[in-house]
Structures are given as structure tokens and as C-alpha cells.
Amino acid sequence: MATAGDVIQLLPLLDKVRPVRGRVGRPRRRPEKLLADCGYDHDKYRRLLWKRGVKPIIARRGTPHGSGLGAQRYVVERTIGLLHWFRRLRIRWEIRDDIHEAFLTLAAALICWRRLSRTLLGPLRRACAERT
């Protein structure tokens, strides 16, 4: 038996996404756009997304990688790559979800700290070094 494609889980996943909060007093709404690779390229799913009020931005099959989606998708792929630097997240050892989520949160905090310390503290350290 072959494994089922991800595309059949697209709509149930979209239904489970919580509405994005807007300004205070405004009604909540669903995400406006959905970015996907060419594995999701099917007119049936494009129509169903439009009916739900979501604009599908899906790469067409047979087009080269420079189809314009790379700028947004690179952020997600880079984040997953950064999380894979942590061995406990690369291969999931924990059975309990709360422990795995705690390690995921800790890894995200460390990634943010490293990035902030590099961008904010780097120039500050250089300025202090120039004064002495």
C-alpha cells in the first residue's frame, strides 16, 4: 500500500488553522493566502481554496524553481533547517508531546537569541572596542 499524498490533508489542515487575530474590535478571519509547492497543483484544490476565501499561491508543475515562490518558502525551509541543528528535534525521542514542544520552544528561543545577539550586540561590541 502506497502512502497517501499530502494534498488530501490540505483542506482538513486548513480547517484546523485558527483564525488570525486582527485589530481590537474587528472580527477574526482566516488567512488570506496559502503558499504551496507543485505537489498541491490541482485545479480541484485551487477551486476549493477560492471557495473558502483563501488565495492559492501554488507553483505550477513543470515550471523551474524560479517561479517566484522561493522568497516566501525559503524562510520556512531555513527555519526548519535551523531547528534540525538541535539533535533532539532532528529525531524525535520523546513520546510525550509536551516535552517535545518544550524542546521546540527552547530551540526557537536559542535561535532568536543567537540572531539578536549577532545583529544587535555585534555593532555594540565593535563600538565599545573602538573606544578603548
From TrEMBL:
Domain (Transposase IS4-like) ranges: 6-111
InterPro entries linked: Transposase_11 (IPR002559)
Pfam families associated with the record: DDE_Tnp_1
Record-linked PANTHER family: BLR1914 PROTEIN, PHP DOMAIN PROTEIN
Protein's name in the database: Transposase IS4-like domain-containing protein
Higher taxonomy: Bacteria, Bacillati, Actinomycetota, Actinomycetes, Streptosporangiales
